[in-house]
Amino acid sequence: MRKAASAQARKKRQETAATVVLRAEKPAYGGAAIARHDNRVVFVEGALPGELVAARVTEEKNDYLKAAAVEVLEPSPDRVEPHCPVFGECGGCQLQHVRYERQISLKEEVLIDTLRRIGKIFCTLSAPITDEPPRAYRHRAQFKTDGRRVGFYRKSSRSVVDVERCPVVCDGISSAYASLRLLSAAPTFSGYFQRIRGFHLVSTNVKTVALFMAPPGVVPGGGLLESLLRESGLAGCAALSGGDAAASAGEPSVDFQL
């Protein structure tokens, strides 16, 4: 029985590592495209609808597979070069390899399909609110730390990708993030940054505030937040310890005109 189990495990590993040629058909939630192989649905990361790709099977379930495109054999005309150097490694963005107008229509297709398939709701959508170009539009961002790196999580992971600059955040967040990255290595602040889990930044581009998230028992020492305000240019900041308010300094919030 042990030999049979070992043979089955080897077969599953071989199938999971296999490379298959797939024709992507339609978009799926989360940035993947749906294809079919051996009468099973395949969710293909990195493929666009209509493309022919060589993909490596990464996960096998009873009724579907997950795969990652390793080579685009017939590219879509909507494929573009991502504008972020860590796209594909960072889990923050999913569609930077797609022309912006097509990004919008892909999301609309996924929403309409979900409403019909799950909610049995048949409807049309109003015109989308869009940004052009699709950069510097986010006025809130949540950054992660692991004691050594500052950035974002990899997709489906708790591993932190070291991100120097994020092109989709607004100028106020970009400036504050650059300051905090430098200060996180400074002797005055490094001890605290090595123990926190991350921080939120919210900005109007005129005023930026921060929220630092730490495990229980990790509290900023006396005057640390005030020093951070002076050095970083933040208008205000607050610290959580295990989800509870631990300390604050400066202005507690920012106001947005909608």
Work out the radius of gyration: 22 Å
Distance between the termini: 66 Å
List low-confidence stretches: 1-5, 9-15
Structural class: alpha+beta
Shape: elongated
Number of helices: 5
**Approximate strand percentage:** 25-35%
Q: What is the total tally of β strands?
A: 13
Strand neighbour order, sheet with most strands: 9-8-7-10-11-12-13
Approximate helicity band: 10-25%
Sheet bearing the most strands, described? 7 strands, mixed
SSE layout and pairing:
Elements: H1 2-16, E1 19-23, E2 26-27, E3 33-37, E4 40-45, E5 52-60, E6 64-74, H2 100-117, E7 140-145, E8 150-153, E9 160-162, H3 171-183, H4 187-193, E10 198-203, E11 208-214, H5 224-232, E12 236-241, E13 244-250
Parallel strand pairs: 4-6, 11-12
Antiparallel strand pairs: 1-5, 2-3, 3-4, 5-6, 7-8, 7-10, 8-9, 10-11, 12-13
Protein architecture, described:
- There is one protein chain.
- With 258 residues, the chain is an alpha+beta fold.
- Helices cover 24% and strands 30% of the residues.
- It is built from five helices and 13 strands.
- It has helices at residues 2-16, 100-117, 171-183, 187-193, 224-232; strands spanning 19-23, 26-27, 33-37, 40-45, 52-60, 64-74, 140-145, 150-153, 160-162, 198-203, 208-214, 236-241, 244-250.
- It has a seven-stranded mixed beta sheet with strand order 9-8-7-10-11-12-13. Strands 1-5-6-4-3-2 form a six-stranded mixed beta sheet.
- The longest helix has 18 residues, at 100-117.
- It is elongated.
- The N and C termini lie far apart (66 Å).
How is this structure best summarized?
The protein has 258 residues and is of the alpha+beta class. It has 5 helices and 13 strands. A hairpin with a 3-residue loop joins strand 5 (52-60) and strand 6.
